[in-house]
Design brief:
single chain, 203 residues, mainly alpha, 0% strand
């Protein structure tokens, strides 16, 4: 049953995310300076307002995280292959996204691994989805939080990035609703990003 009480911390955090990501996507030349800083702010917001969930053992969240990250990357790889097979114009968008937003310098990869990935999962799953779970069934918490996660990517002006964020948000939302483990979704996100940006880029 949906609670009638307004969750001002949830609303405030979501508005803060929109403000921060709006400025993050404004200038691609300074994206990697603003993005980690924005995630640090959202991480602090999460720590101040919500406890971190970790309900499974180290071995289980490492193995499940690696496997789910590989499967999500496989899903994106399949989608990319279909785009090129049918000569869809989205292929150009993917290349442009890599050019604009993919990390290039060593410190950017460090920021991705140590700040961006943990920060996104702490905020979007560990704060946003967790608070939505208090008001809605698991299914709707996954869909709503994934839509909220995708919404901040609208400022990139790339709908394929918005769609990718929604799909990945669904997967990580499912993992969090299933095991209630932030380390699990962080490992999954990290494996996915390492494949996407370093080991096997989709371009």
């Amino acid at each position: 049953m949906v609670s009638e009480k307004i969750d001002y911390r949830l609303i405030g955090g979501f508005l803060l995310a929109h403000i921060l990501l709006y400025f993050t996507f404004q200038d691609k030349n300074i994206f990697w300076y603003i993005f980690p800083a924005s995630l640090l702010v959202l991480t602090i917001w999460t720590i101040l307002h919500e406890d971190v969930d970790d309900r499974i053992s180290f071995i289980r969240y490492i193995s499940a995280g690696i496997l789910s990250g590989l499967l999500l990357y496989g899903l994106f790889h399949l989608g990319n292959s279909l785009i090129h097979l049918f000569h869809l114009p989205l292929g150009d968008n993917i290349g442009r996204l890599y050019k604009w937003f993919a990390p290039e310098q060593f410190w950017q990869y460090i920021a991705l691994v140590l700040i961006a990935v943990p920060g996104e999962e702490l905020f979007w799953r560990g704060f946003i989805q967790k608070r939505i779970l208090k008001r809605f069934p698991s299914f709707w918490s996954i869909v709503i939080s994934a839509a909220m996660y995708a919404s901040v990517h609208l400022y990139s002006s790339e709908m394929i990035l918005v769609f990718a964020a929604f799909v990945s948000g669904i997967v990580w939302g499912l993992l969090f609703a299933w095991k209630r483990s932030i380390p699990l979704v962080i490992v999954s996100h990290l494996v996915f990003d390492l494949l996407l940006f370093i080991l096997a880029p989709l371009y």
